[in-house]
Amino acid sequence: MILYKSHPVFMLSQMSCYRLQNILTALPACINITYSPQPCYFTFTSPPSNNFRVLCYQVKKMEAGHHDLSKVTVVGDPQLLQKKIDAVRLAGPSKLQVIADFDGTLTKYFVNGRRGQSSHGILKQGNAEYDDKRQALYEYYHPLEFSPTIPIHEKTKLMEDWWGKTHNLLIEGGLTYDAIKESVSSSAIAFRDGVVELFEFLEKRDIPVLIFSAGLADIIEEVLRQKVHRSFKNVKTVSNRMVFDNDGRLISFKGKLIHSLNKNEHALEMAAPVHEHFGDGDGPINDNASVKKRTNVLLLGDHLGDLRMSDGLDYETRISAGFLNDNIENNLVDYRKAFDVVYLNDAPMWGVVKLVSQMCSKVN
């Protein structure tokens, strides 16, 4: 609590603010709520009651308990994980980079009790005919993507067809950047609690974050702008990027097509200099030394295939964190074998925040 103009100011974290949102309507009118966007501030036109002080204290306790993720954290080999953490810590933050999937990894799997949307799924062209055509493609190809009976080479070709047809429909349907902004604004997509804190922690230590997605870079970056309300100098999006004309209308896509099954083919593009090329997808990137010299990797994903995102990078130590959001009983054995640590049930990002803090702590 801080006194400001004779009135106390309660500073609460973003998570605490979320928890208070459902209570605010019952609070007295003398309270003025100001969001910063984080932390949010509660100021008073008259001294607050002891009841509100108790409420703030209870919410802070709830928040502290919420960070205990022991019941949703699974580590297959604790000794190996600790050995990797120690190796990364010994090398220092200057050798570390983070590679993260977007949909279902940085974003929540469930939003308000329902399946959250993907960066592709939120897009509405403002043209019902083409929205319906893209939905028809989804209904046809999506089951094929996860079919256990289709050989990988055939499935890869199917994914190329799906992504290519979808991109053509976006161009033919006259997609505009204004439609992208409106789609994000009305979407059911949200970041996991703790993602902003993770990005801030890494930014302070100049640790690059590469968001690698088979979705659409322009949408992902718009989601960051609208949902986080700030940018991070250390974050780069590697995804399918659009080209717009002077009127803001989509005319083409640039670079290689990135779909759900070929992420590993773009590992070298991922290793492009983050600071020099943040948000810039123009032309080929040849100098990848500034990230390739970072030989320790923290990889975040929600599918077993995401583990291949680091293929082609000559890393010394890789720590992989997997988010198993659904169908846990059938998948946990495979996830526990594949990932160094697994977070269950659409868990928040606080476990990863703790993990990177351990990796970046000073060596005694």
From TrEMBL:
InterPro entries recorded: HAD-like_sf, HAD_sf, Pyrimidine_nucleotidase_eu
GO annotation (BP), single: nucleotide metabolic process
UniProt-recorded Gene Ontology molecular function terms: 5'-nucleotidase activity; magnesium ion binding; nucleotide binding
Reactions this protein catalyses: a ribonucleoside 5'-phosphate + H2O = a ribonucleoside + phosphate
EC nos: 3.1.3.5
Keyword Magnesium: yes
Keyword set, alphabetical order: Hydrolase, Magnesium, Metal-binding, Nucleotide metabolism, Nucleotide-binding
GO cellular component terms given for this protein: cytoplasm
Enzyme's top EC category: hydrolase
Listed Pfam families: UMPH-1
Domain of life: Eukaryota
PANTHER family from the UniProt entry: 5'-NUCLEOTIDASE (PTHR13045), 7-METHYLGUANOSINE PHOSPHATE-SPECIFIC 5'-NUCLEOTIDASE (PTHR13045:SF0)
Family: Belongs to the pyrimidine 5'-nucleotidase family.
Name recorded for this polypeptide: 5'-nucleotidase
Organism encoding this protein: Salix dunnii
Lineage: Eukaryota, Viridiplantae, Streptophyta, Embryophyta, Tracheophyta
